Amino acid sequence: MSTVSTTTNTNGTSDSLTAFGLLIPTSTGISFVEISPPLSLL
């Protein structure tokens, strides 16, 4: 099962192109942490 979602980054814009995520296994399951770096870091 997979989900596709867009989040609002710190710049206030919804950008799914610069967003990447990490799948982190935890004691309660697998957590998806989505990271949206500012464009200035790219």
Helix/sheet category: mainly beta
| Fraction in beta strands | 25-35%
Largest sheet: 2 strands, antiparallel
User: Would you report the number of β strands?
Assistant: 2
Strand order of the largest sheet: 1-2
Shape: rod-shaped
Order of helices and strands: EE
Count the helices. How many? 0
| Parts with pLDDT < 50 across at least 5 consecutive residues | none
Please compute the radius of gyration using only Cα atoms: 12 Å
Cα(first) to Cα(last) distance is 30 Å
Report helical residue fraction.
Answer: under 10%
pLDDT averaged over residues: 61
List key phrases describing it.
mainly beta; 0% helix
Polypeptide structure, described:
It is built from no helices and two strands. With 42 residues, the protein is mainly beta. A two-stranded antiparallel ribbon has the order 1-2.
SSE blueprint and pairings:
Elements: E1 20-26, E2 29-35
Antiparallel strand pairs: 1-2
Would you kindly provide a brief summary of this structure?
The protein is mostly beta strands and about 40 residues long.
